[in-house]
Amino acid sequence: KLWRALIEREDDAESARALLVKATECCPTCIEFWIALARLEEHKDARKVLNKARQMNPMSLEIWIAAAKLE
Question: Which of the two ends of the chain, N or C, has the fewest CB atoms closer than 10 A to its terminal CB?
Fold first, then answer.
């Protein structure tokens, strides 16, 4: 919840992105953080984010769906 509160307080995308990168490192099973980070990235980098998210959470249907939508 603390990460979520910090991220919501950020005004610019770059600061939110930096927090989300750290949040995914600290909470790699939080699907919400991975998907939010992918949404802030360019297509190529979003693909990398979602691929890493799938490695960390291979059974997450949400991540698989987000990756399919990205393509």
Answer: N
* pTM, rounded to two decimals: 0.89
Evaluate whether 46 touches 39 at the Cβ level (below 8 Å).
yes
The residue among 9, 14, 62 whose CA lies nearest residue 41 is 14
How far is it, in rounded angstroms, from Cα 37 to Cα 18?
Answer: 9
Lookup: tokens for 34? 């991975």
Query: pLDDT tens digits, residue range 3-37?
Result: 888 888 888 889 999 999 999 999 999 999 999 99
Residue 57 Cα distances to 9, 17, 40, angstroms: 27, 20, 20
